[in-house]
Amino acid sequence: MKHFFGFPFLALALASASTTPDQSFDYIIVGAGTSGLVIANRLSEDPSVTVAVVEAGTDQRNNPNVTSTEFGSGLNSPLDWAYASVNQTHAGNRPFAMHAGKAWGGTSAINGMTYIRGNKAEFDVWETLGNPGWNWDSLFAYYKKSENYTVPTDSQLAAGATYQRQNHGFKGPLHVGYTPALENGSYAPLVIDTWATVGVAHNPDLNRGDVHGFGMGPQTLDPALNVRWDSATAYLHPVEGRSNLQVLRGTVKRITWADKAGKGKLVASGVEVVDENGESTTLGAKKEVVLSAGSLRSPPILEASGVGNSRTLKSLGITPQIDLPGVGENLIEQPAHILVFSGNLPSAASAYHAFLTAAQLFGDELPTIEAESRANLSHWAQAAADASGPGGPSTCALEKLLRYQHDLIFQQNITIAEVLLAIAPGGLLASNYWTLFPFSRGSVHLGSMDQINAPVIDPRLFLADLDLLTLVAAGKFVEKFWFSEPLKTQGDVDGPVISDGSGFTRNATDAEWRAYLQNTVIANSHPTGSASMLPRALGGVVDAELRVYGTANVRVVDASVIPTQVSGHLTATLYSLAERAADIIKGLV
């Protein structure tokens, strides 16, 4: 019982019959993941309040699949929810794996640990969309507050790591740095010269608010110990002795509501929690309930609580409490792909990230693609609205959001594709690449009250055909890179290495690329937007204080509130977002 911090009776209560008397806390946080543990840490700094975190996963601090800095060791393991989407009509009519962590630390316990933020304009648009105070400058302060950056060693600098000191924090809980294995890297000059050949400049620091070009991204790890530094390690383990903070095992089924209203708004009284045996109990919340279950879980919890599209709720036999059509909508997932080539280079721990613009991908075709895509925005918005069905997001609202995104890409020149390069054992040249800002919009919803662990996920990959066009262009750019000098000759590059019987070869036509990618694309597991921080008229679910519309004391703090995608990897931004959210809850912002 030691992990329940001095309250073993509550652990027993959650495992016992539903007749057990309720327990109450000031704050209940749903999910001990990347964002939830930041909130738990910061709220429990005040010894006068009590904080409970409810998490379906367990403490895995000694699990080598968590501590390992090798990406992929925790995927498709008991640490991974490994959700399956519905069959994707425009992507081979296949279901897709959607990875999410099931442990203390959530997805930060199984992800690739990459720490890259994004471009300034991508965050400034949050404020433009109606969220005062949410912009690059405000988030930058919290990036630095959370970060404990380790300056790369001379050997790591020689192997390709670069940084600018003013962009980093050095006193935060989250260790960020480079793996010690990087000190053995030797192919940096070769890669740098090849990127120059294809017209991509070196970026001295991918975390400065400008990711254009290529660089070596740091990771959320402790370089001295060579172990992953997830949110549990950073924000929970150091404070688990606080008597006012507890982590309780269970799955939150729904929010419970008080009979009284708060100034015409619903007041959460607590949450219903289900244990492994299906038994339920209720925990009371005297101040607030904070949902931090992630983009794929927070919306279904809201729906189970009567908050969402009234038509959807009634079809599930749920009495609507708040008609909020944006719940579970505006889901944005990045289509991704992997190409592997053969070569004659020693394996290396270093991984280069290249962020490319529409101009770099489309070249002379850019003006045509810009005009055609602008003309198609209303069509894509209508297609997303039709897929969501009656009572869902409006076509007008969706089109407005897509127009802002179009402006970011074609007027403000943000990056729209990422390429991640690595040299694997056996001389294999691995290239993972994805579309950063897809125009397709999907959804995630509760399937039934009896299947709370099986959300219905439909990212609708390639609903907007520009997303496929962008992925094709990125794939062709990857091929161009590997077959450019000096890498092509010195690395003895050949391939691609294809073993799926598709017959896909180098110098394929655009039609062959499209057919191949539709049947081999994967989801990037970077879902955002399903409980968007937007005005209610635009399909928003939470306001600028992350409070759910129509409620007095329910907030959402996780990737679901991010209304757009970002060029960086989500982890870095989630720490910053949660740090700022904690200050909002505490009345400091």
UniProtKB/TrEMBL annotation:
Domain of life: Eukaryota
Residue numbers annotated as active site: H526, H569
InterPro entries the UniProt entry points to: FAD/NAD-bd_sf (IPR036188), Glucose_Oxidase_domain_2 (IPR027424), GMC_OxRdtase (IPR012132), GMC_OxRdtase_N (IPR000172), GMC_OxRtase_C (IPR007867)
Annotated GO MF terms: flavin adenine dinucleotide binding; oxidoreductase activity, acting on CH-OH group of donors
Keywords: FAD, Flavoprotein, Oxidoreductase, Signal
Residues annotated as signal peptide: 1-17
Cofactor(s) listed in the protein's UniProt record: FAD
Domain annotation Glucose-methanol-choline oxidoreductase N-terminal: ranges: 101-124, 294-308
Record bears the keyword NAD: no
Residues reported to bind FAD: T34, S35, T107, V252
SUPFAM superfamilies per the UniProt record, alphabetical: FAD-linked reductases, C-terminal domain, FAD/NAD(P)-binding domain
PANTHER family: GLUCOSE-METHANOL-CHOLINE GMC OXIDOREDUCTASE, GLUCOSE-METHANOL-CHOLINE OXIDOREDUCTASE N-TERMINAL DOMAIN-CONTAINING PROTEIN
Protein family membership: Belongs to the GMC oxidoreductase family.
Name of the protein in its database record: GMC oxidoreductase
Species, as recorded: Dichotomopilus funicola
